[in-house]
Amino acid sequence: MSAVIEERWAERLQHSSNWSWQQVSSNTIEDITVLAELLQLDANALTKISAGSEFKLRVPLTFVSRMQAGDLNDPLLLQILPQKKEHQLAPGFSHDPLDEQRYNVSPGLVHKYRGRVLLTAAVSCPINCRYCFRRHFPYDQNRLSQDSLNTALDYIRDDNSIREVILSGGEPLLLNDRKFAQLLDKIESVPHVKQIRIHTRFPVAVPQRLTKALCERLIDSRAQVAVVLHANHPNEIDQQLKHHLAPLNNSSVTLLNQSVLLDGINNQSATLCKLSEKLYEAGVLPYYLHATDPVSGTAHFRVDDNQARDLVHEMTNQLPGYLVPTLVREISGRPAKTRL
Q1: Domains observed in the chain
Q2: Under a CB-based contact definition with an 8 Å cutoff, are residues 266 and 275 in contact?
């Protein structure tokens, strides 16, 4: 990489915390060489573990800024770095282990559990997490066009048992504030929908996404709103995220977090305890700790169930109960997540 390119990216990294979320999103890193230069990593050492993938590298500068320069084992880096390990075949791992396509009742709409449905509000993400259970999901067939949204809303209206709509993706907050508010308006027009849940990693990766307008719209919703963040390591929680979460604290919006248990990243009780404590300092309650789903390309993240149970037991001995997330696995065909 030329010195000019290196200097330009380094300058962007330095100023990214002051950018709007749109500026950060348009400056995501998708080149492994740029990432290596910014993190002062030895290119040869990085090449030994990294690999190309159809599920390409994508990471915002604001997330890179929290990584430790010079550390190939940085826990944030390992969550987004494509590795050769992803190409190893593993028994029991598949493209759709949760059988989501079976429950994909219409484009953009997934109905797995009684009383709630999931809308894929957007079909891409600003950050590609290597353990993503939807890394092989057919997003091209699930774009929420106006027609498919109308079909989904008709489905929801026709089923009085649906009390909750979950906005996921992809990344639902890739919709701008105006489009997101319009989507909420349409969901709120269905009388029997009482809860709206937003599953998002965007504010963790790009805290600026929690704009004043977005926060005000969430607070003003006629439904009960829960924002479920996704942080896996305490280093992901910084002052900037706390600052942008502040308007939602002391409001009607419930702030929760779900994590994935990942080998080499957070499979230590001290790390998980610190994550829970930092989340609570930011006004967020730990919700779920997920066992990794057996998705092709993610076997190297798998943590043994017995070790997972031991970790949660250790957390229980060190933290108040409200800071201990529930250890779960999602198993296709079951009516709810399975507690381990």
Answers
A1: 3-87 (no CATH), 100-339 (3.20.20.70)
A2: yes
Of 112, 91, 77, 37, nearest to 330 (Cα)?
A: 112
Instruction: Please spell the DSSP secondary structure of 57-111, one letter per residue.
Output: --B-HHHHTTSPTT-TT-TTHHHH--BGGGGS--TT-BS-TT-GGGG--BTTEE-
pLDDT tens profile 71-101? 999 999 999 999 999 888 888 888 887 777 7
Give first-to-last CA distance, the chain, whole Å: 47
Q: Give the list of residues 6+ apart from residue 224 with CB closer than 8 angstroms, or none.
A: 194, 195, 196, 252, 254
Q: 254 in helix, strand or coil? A: strand
Angle at 301 between CA 233 and CA 229, to 5 degrees: 35
In this structure, how many other beta carbons lie within 10 angstroms of the beta carbon of residue 338?
12
- The pLDDT tens digits of the residues spanning 34-78 come to 899 899 998 778 877 888 778 899 999 999 999 999 999 999 999
